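Input/output pair, single chain:
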Amino acid sequence: MATIRPFRGIRPPQDIVEDVASRPYDVLNSAEARAEAGDNEKSLYHIIRPEIDFPEGTNEHEDKVYKQAALNFRKFQEKGWLVADEKENYYVYAQTMNGKTQYGIVGCAYVPDYMDEVIKKHELTRKDKEDDRMRHVRETGANIEPVFLAYPDNDNLAQIIASYTITKPVYDFIAPGDGFRHTFWVIDREQDIKNITAEFETMPALYIADGHHRSAAAARVGAEKARQNPNHRGDEDYNYFMAVLFPAGQLTIIDYNRVVKDMNGLSKAELLEAISQHFDIEEKGSEPYRPVALHNFALYTDHVWYSLTAKPGTYDDNDPIGVLDVTISSKLILDRILGIKDLRTDKRIDFVGGIRGLEELQRRVDSGEMALALALYPVSMKQLMDIADSGNIMPPKTTWFEPKLRSGLVIHLLE
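Output:
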């Protein structure tokens, strides 16, 4: 059963939360972080992207960069830009996008639950990315950014959340850039805190939606600290990592699409002929075409959109991985026809989150940068949870969650 506990969060004062809060470290590069931070010395980018404090071109993995993250984190606390709550709390974090709001509980997940697969994964991680976040957690001594977890819908938790969201929030702002609303409450009533902990204890599993590298890094640091502590008890803060937990029924996975640099030596006619062996093809014209159901895809090339529908027999409904559209397209188009064997390493392919729209796919092809684009129908939360429960791993670049969690609303110390 899942172990979740409250924690004594470190948070920005209400009047500067918009100055501190930022996008997650992994959705923008150094140049973008430098531009967004600008002359704002309170921006969390100085902690999560500390290379912006050095000249352009500085390697973000240098020792001095990680040490700068720790120095900046200490500076933020000394300046009063991050202040510790007086006691352990849970928190409610709500995100509103396109008129739809999802309500999460901010708490601390248990490192042994991650190790024992009570917290279930659906993606593989890369060691270099794990090592990067592990170094960041180790140097700062904190989970600066949360992991995004999902849990089965629970009426009791929904009622507790609702009792707070009818009150005035401590934070409420529209984030620049994405235009999404972020709202935040403190769950400080002791009985509510006990009830939340008890409700999660009834759940056999939690699911990582986003943040596989952050959770892996936090778990590794926690295990490392446990080994180094001769008086380890198991209840120390380093045994836990910060997460925002959302009910699965409120979450939406959006499409995660592909663009490819060349046609592997094929002409357009030869490409379409090869695709027609396994897909029914319908020309859709110059206006963007969005896939309408599972096993329906959109292909864009040479200023024309096509609908591709996988023919019966090209997938197995009883195979939780084989039935995924990302598997079907990877196997029958990207691999067999275009010669792209490894989505993780092949430089001929790139990936575009659906939040950027089909127009971004069209733009990259029309510019000549890419030869074709492939849009996919998004997977469902049920598919994700079924795959995680079965112990399987989804293919790379399968899920894209939006909106992204805003970083800097609350931080968890490991000591």
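The first strand starts at residue 4 and ends at 5. DSSP finds 13 helices and 21 strands in the chain.
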